[in-house]
């Protein structure tokens, strides 16, 4: 069976393509996911810069993996031409990789841009939501669900133009027919719709994700609740009733009663000459947004550092568990494998709780947990209780062994781990308790958790 998939992986595109290395030169790494790495590349004939996603065919183990890679390219071509969707330039293939060359978005992530702005208001949030939901509308009208809408998947082509926002990463997207029901659980923890976790959903799930993004745009925090939206606590009393009305209708638990993309765009808060006020929101909201965005990125860095600092003896037991759970020997644990493995180890968790574990561990949003993610997540789920792990992480960041982590040292670690667009001053401010613009050792648990 494995051999058949490997053979098929040689024909992902189903055609012979030119040698990409004769057409483009490859530069620095821009990002990394489960199946491959995205690089900056330059077209030799024109000198124009593009982003190139290189998908390792060695990792396309299952037939479904090959189909997913092929479908990502098909969907990008299908959606090409919309001003707020990243443009595919071309696709190439050799014996080792499938390459997707696309427009390079040099302006950074959506949240980072908001944070850099001096004036941020409901009207600005409405303009951004209009772009995001406009992308959903065109996707749905063309029979595509994005399935992984989150702020990180919206980049700016030009950092000076807020309207150059582009949706990227269609790796989890799917074609759908009206009325078709999907059951595969994909998405990201903060943004995934409840019906996705129940394995019975359609395109309405994208609207839920956009509703979560809007909620965060207005208050700086993700919504944590069990089916109930709290509009009584700060800053919601300061936010217009129209905004809250729209959020309620986008975060409606029943998918059939949720607004469609077109209905969102027609809502008074969104539409042209709408009612979203232009009064600046409280600066504390921007501060929250900074901390949410920055700590999100740094937590992942700290977990990676701690996972890599563990000795062979400490990892051996976790490796045995991973190997035992990976019954398909694919190198990644699926939802069903995790469920069966937990049952074998005596855990009695509901499907939704198991999915929460999957979501927490699946940093690359691949729908499976690879070995590195498993180790990092296992440490995380144990709350990093052992002090020596915390100290090891701290010492990795504390390059000069001064007992404090400085902005310069954070920059160095970001470069080593290829983490970009992290607002280091805000991370320092969040955990710095004595205003020395450093992170002392005793704040490490807060820093990591």
Automatic annotation (TrEMBL):
Keyword terms? ATP-binding, Calcium, Kinase, Metal-binding, Nucleotide-binding, Phosphoprotein, Repeat, Serine/threonine-protein kinase, Transferase
Q: What is this protein called?
A: non-specific serine/threonine protein kinase
Q: Which family does it belong to?
A: Belongs to the protein kinase superfamily. CAMK Ser/Thr protein kinase family. CaMK subfamily. Belongs to the protein kinase superfamily. Ser/Thr protein kinase family. CDPK subfamily.
Entry's EC annotation: 2.7.11.1
Q: Name one Pfam family in it.
A: Pkinase
Q: Which InterPro entries match?
A: CDPK_Ser/Thr_kinases, EF-hand-dom_pair, EF_Hand_1_Ca_BS, EF_hand_dom, Kinase-like_dom_sf, Prot_kinase_dom, Protein_kinase_ATP_BS, Ser/Thr_kinase_AS
**Which CDD domains does the annotation name?**
STKc_CAMK
Q: Where is the signal peptide?
A: none
Q: Which reaction does it catalyse?
A: L-seryl-[protein] + ATP = O-phospho-L-seryl-[protein] + ADP + H(+); L-threonyl-[protein] + ATP = O-phospho-L-threonyl-[protein] + ADP + H(+)
Q: Is Transmembrane a UniProt keyword of this protein?
A: no
PROSITE patterns found in the cross-reference section: EF_HAND_1, EF_HAND_2, PROTEIN_KINASE_ATP, PROTEIN_KINASE_DOM, PROTEIN_KINASE_ST
SUPFAM superfamilies in the record = EF-hand (SSF47473), Protein kinase-like (PK-like) (SSF56112)
Whether Repeat counts among this entry's keywords is: yes
Q: Taxonomically, which superkingdom?
A: Eukaryota
- Protein kinase domain ranges (all copies): 24-270
> A GO molecular function for this record?
calcium ion binding
User: Which residues are involved in binding ATP?
Assistant: 63
